[in-house]
Write a structure and sequence with these properties.
The chain is built from 22 helices and 22 strands. It is globular and about 105 Å long. The strands form five sheets. A six-stranded mixed sheet has the order 14-18-19-17-16-15. The chain has a five-stranded mixed sheet with strand order 6-8-9-11-10. A five-stranded mixed sheet has the order 20-12-13-22-21. Helix content is 35%, strand content 19%. Helix 1 packs antiparallel against helix 4, helix 2 runs antiparallel to helix 3 and helix 4 runs antiparallel to helix 5. It has five domains: 124 residues, Up-down Bundle (Four Helix Bundle (Hemerythrin (Met), subunit A)); 96 residues, 2-Layer Sandwich (Alpha-Beta Plaits), CATH 3.30.70; 56 residues; 179 residues, Histidine kinase-like ATPase, C-terminal domain (Heat Shock Protein 90); 133 residues, SH3 Domains (SH3 type barrels, Roll), CATH 2.30.30.40. By secondary structure, it is α+β, with helices and mostly antiparallel strands.
Length: 762
């Protein structure tokens, strides 16, 4: 891959992030969060995609993004209200933009019909006619003199006379007003020192070819403070030799602002290389210190009016550095810094620290995921070798205070630090998966003619990258199922006393060392009699089966099961929830259902936080070595005989702190022995499941706490009930990692011999 292709790959990766930010911002605007920063973030996302596409000659993407950007600029400038109808159009425009990016990435052509229709609708809004095509409120006219714009499509078809009017760019008036409706200026003594930056800007022809505009860049400079603009047209040739696509104009702009040089240069980030740019600073204008009251009144309004009439009259400095008395005071920027829209550059100016220089932006490095996976594998080998060393040192009888043992302890701490740091690199927030779901919800709701609202919680919850990558499919299926089968139609909801719009909640949280994903709807719940009858009709269960509510709910996970009466694009083939269960089980997780008829259903996915390393307690069970995840263990103890009480013919419970917990013999459940050992002869591990229920696992002995590397048992053998994965011990033997929740919920009315799991040859 050549250097240009590598840069293009990076560009499309950034496009994915920008599209996510775009949709997030539009959804926030839809929910009424239309503050200036949100609107600016949406504008910047579209502008950044357009700028990058122009650099790679993606003309179709540039043209579409330009129209989108123009409409967003009208919203950002306050010339158009962000009404709900407009937001819906912008959301559909974002979908078309995503399709454009996908087509550009694959080197294909986008859907021309959808693009043309969307462009026409956007242009109607730009013209002030709205989606209905009827004349509406036209955008407010700019206070500056109008200028004629030459359409890009006219270039090359002959010269068209154009009247060009140079406008004076002024900052927008501040929101605050004085007692008589006049602008209330900021107190001069509260203003930080301002600097006058002289910007010389000469666009090249390539700048215009990439759909950038000099006028928009100059308006961005005006957002930083007060400006004086001067146009130099000496280089414009005679009309008979002029190149209509050439760049001949130069602008000199004096910007008086409290921002630093970096903020000024960031305005031109996307035209770097397509223009000649020079930024120089002059002496800072000192802040006016409060003076003692004098008999002569201080007419602030008159001074500001004088400053507007002669903005170039700035205070000067004598050779000794003492400021002379200014003849006039420069007017402060009309808009306070907190209310200024951020520049259209990809990153806003860094926040100042303590009034000093801008803080450096946080740097990020893009790394090939395969390199990180390789690093994880090496860390796993390091953990295994560290365990081997520890076991050999222990076997040779070194004292804990010996140099060898102490050095080994330091190695263990370093290994743990490396492992934690590498796992932090792989940890990613689930936001990357969640941000795809609002678009899915809109599409499915439109297809089913239902009204639905998505509420997302815990988007910042971090989980291992490999888990993130495989979460999208099960969440997609569950969300579609919640809308198609869970939510009622608007008429049915109103008849049931519910709002016409249904709510689907998507949440992520950490619980008991695992990540839990919940998909909840406030629909009609599971119709258990109907589900049972469908399963009987399809031959999935016998007609005389006696099933509990939980077992009936789980019938929907059977292959071929579907409650849809008609096969559609959304459901009806009986593969959705079966795919969900298999996907979750492949990740070492489980899925459960909680449903209340008439009130809704909740699907809960429980997945491991990482598929690489975990902390566990190594125990001995019937001569076999097992690992119990440390996150599930509350405490370990040796019970007294009087603390054990029989329950039924074979069962028993343990009295722990005025409560009783069920005793579960690990060896009997996994088939390592047929008869349970006496609890007082072994060791009890008090564990807590994801549902908060505690149980007591009976083991023969404890070898100690270890950090172990997770190896997939399903990939190397097959899935085994009660076992989550496997690992390699320090002596090279294979040990099984117990799935505590599956172990304690497995039926065990009587001790039974379950499948004996073959271990590696010792």
């Amino acid at each position: 891959m050549d250097e240009l292709e590598e840069i293009k790959v990076t560009f499309f990766q950034e496009c994915d992030e920008l599209l996510g930010d775009l949709e997030t911002g539009l959804l926030a605007m839809e929910n009424g969060e239309g503050d200036s920063e949100t609107v600016n973030s949406v504008f910047r996302a579209v502008h950044s995609i357009k700028g990058g596409a122009g650099a790679f000659g993606l003309d179709a993407l540039v043209r579409y993004a330009h129209v989108f950007e123009t409409l967003m600029d009208a919203v950002r400038g306050g010339r158009m209200a962000a009404e709900p109808a407009l937001i819906r159009v912008l959301l559909r425009a974002a979908d078309v933009l995503a399709d454009q990016v996908t087509a550009a990435r694959k080197g294909g052509e986008p859907n021309q019909e959808a693009t043309v229709a969307m462009v026409a609708e956007l242009e109607r809004w730009i013209a002030g006619k709205g989606s209905s095509g009827e004349a509406g409120a036209a955008p407010e006219a700019s206070p500056a003199a109008p200028s004629t714009v030459i359409d890009e499509d006219d270039v090359g078809f002959g010269f068209k006379p154009a009247a060009i009017a140079l406008i004076e760019i002024e900052p927008e008036p501040a929101a605050e007003t004085g007692p008589e409706g006049e602008q209330a200026p900021a107190p001069i003594e509260d203003l930080p020192p301002a600097t006058v930056w002289t910007v010389t800007f000469k666009p090249a022809a390539s700048l215009y070819a990439k759909a950038n505009e000099a006028g928009r860049l100059l308006r961005e400079l005006a957002h930083l403070g007060s400006v004086e603009t001067e146009l130099h047209d000496e280089a414009v040739p005679h009309l008979d030799v002029i190149d209509p696509e050439g760049g001949y104009l130069t602008w000199s702009v004096r910007v008086t602002t409290t921002e630093g040089e970096r903020a000024v240069r960031e305005v031109f980030d996307f035209v770097d290389g397509d223009c000649e740019l020079s930024v120089t600073g002059e002496e800072p204008a000192p802040a006016i210190a409060p003076e003692a009251p004098t008999e002569e009144p201080f007419d602030l309004a008159a001074l500001i009016a004088t400053a507007k009439a002669a903005p170039s009259a700035l205070p000067s400095h004598d050779p000794q550095g003492e400021p002379e008395a200014p003849k006039s005071i420069a007017a402060p920027p009309a808009e306070p810094a907190s209310a200024r829209p951020a520049p259209s550059a990809p990153t806003a100016p860094a926040a100042r620290q303590g009034g000093g220089e801008p803080a450096a932006a946080q740097a990020t490095i893009r790394v090939d995921p395969e390199r990180i996976d390789r690093l994880i594998d090496l860390v796993g080998e390091l953990v295994i070798n560290q365990a081997m060393l520890a076991q050999r040192v222990s076997a040779h009888g070194f004292a804990p205070s010996s140099d060898v043992a102490m050095g080994l302890d330091e190695l263990e701490q370093l290994t743990r630090g490396i492992q934690d740091s590498v796992m932090a690199i792989r940890a990613q927030p689930v936001k990357s998966v969640f941000q795809r779901m609002p678009r899915l919800l809109r599409e499915v709701a439109n297809q089913t003619r239902k009204q639905a609202r998505l509420v997302m919680e815990g988007e910042g919850t971090e989980v291992d990258k490999t888990v993130i990558e495989r979460l999208a499919e099960p969440i997609t299926h569950m969300l579609r199922n919640a809308i198609d089968h869970g939510l009622e139609s608007p008429d049915e909801r109103i008849a049931a006393g519910k709002p016409a719009e249904g709510t689907v909640r998507l949440a992520a949280l950490h619980r008991s060392g695992r990540i839990v994903i919940e998909v909840e709807d406030d629909g009609k719940g599971i119709n258990r009699p109907r589900v049972r009858q469908i399963a009987i009709d399809k031959g999935l269960i016998p007609a005389d089966s006696q099933l509990s509510d939980e077992e009936i709910d789980n019938l929907i996970f059977l292959p071929g099961f579907s409650t849809a009466g008609v096969i559609s694009d959304i459901s009806g083939r009986g593969v959705g929830m079966d795919v969900v269960r298999r996907s979750v089980q492949a990740l070492g997780g489980r899925i459960s259902i909680s449903s209340t008829p008439g009130a809704g259903s909740t699907f809960t996915l429980s997945l491991p936080l990482t598929l690489a390393v975990l902390d566990g307690m190594v125990v001995d069970v019937a001569g076999e070595t097992l690992v119990v995840p440390l996150t599930n263990i509350v405490e370990s103890l040796r019970p007294k005989p009087e603390d054990v009480h029989p329950l039924g013919p074979e069962g028993a419970v343990l009295a722990v702190r005025d409560s009783f917990v069920r005793l579960v013999d690990i060896g009997c459940v996994l088939g390592f022995r047929k008869q349970p050992i006496a609890p007082d002869k072994g060791v009890i591990l008090l564990v807590e499941g994801e549902d908060g229920v505690r149980s007591a696992l009976v083991a023969d002995g404890i070898h100690g706490q270890r950090q172990v590397v997770i190896k997939s048992l399903e990939a190397n053998y097959r899935q085994v009930e009660g076992i989550a994965a496997a690992t390699i011990l320090g002596d090279g033997r294979v040990a099984l990692i117990v799935d505590v929740d599956a172990l304690v919920t497995a039926p065990r009315a009587t001790p039974r011999a379950v499948e004996t799991i073959p271990l590696a040859a010792e």
